[in-house]
Amino acid sequence: MEWQVRAIRGATTASENSVAAIREAVRELLDELEARNDINPELIISATFSATRDLDAVFP
Asked: Are 49 and 60 a contacting pair, CB within 8 Å?
C-alpha cells in the first residue's frame, strides 16, 4: 500500500444550537469532503473539530 497524507479543511454552519442540528451539519460536511476529494472514510485516521462558543449543545 502506498502511503498518502492529505490535509483538507472544511467549514459548515448549524441551523440551530441543538444536538440534532450540529450532528446533521457535521455529517453533511464529512460526506461532502469525502465525495469531492475521493476519500475512503476507512483510511481517515484523524480529524480535528472546532466550534464557536454559541454551539454548546454537543461537541462535533
From this structure: yes
CB-based contact 12:29 (threshold 8 Å): yes
> What pLDDT, in 10s, does the model give residues 13-48?
999 999 999 999 999 999 999 999 988 888 888 889
CA distance 19 to 2: 38
Question: Does residue 6 lie within any of the structural domains?
Answer: yes
Query: Is the distance from CB of 10 to CB of 33 less than 8 angstroms?
Result: yes
When divided into structural domains, the chain yields a total of 1
33: domain range?
Answer: 1-55
pLDDT at 1 > cutoff 80 = no
* Residue 23 is assigned to a structural domain of this protein: yes
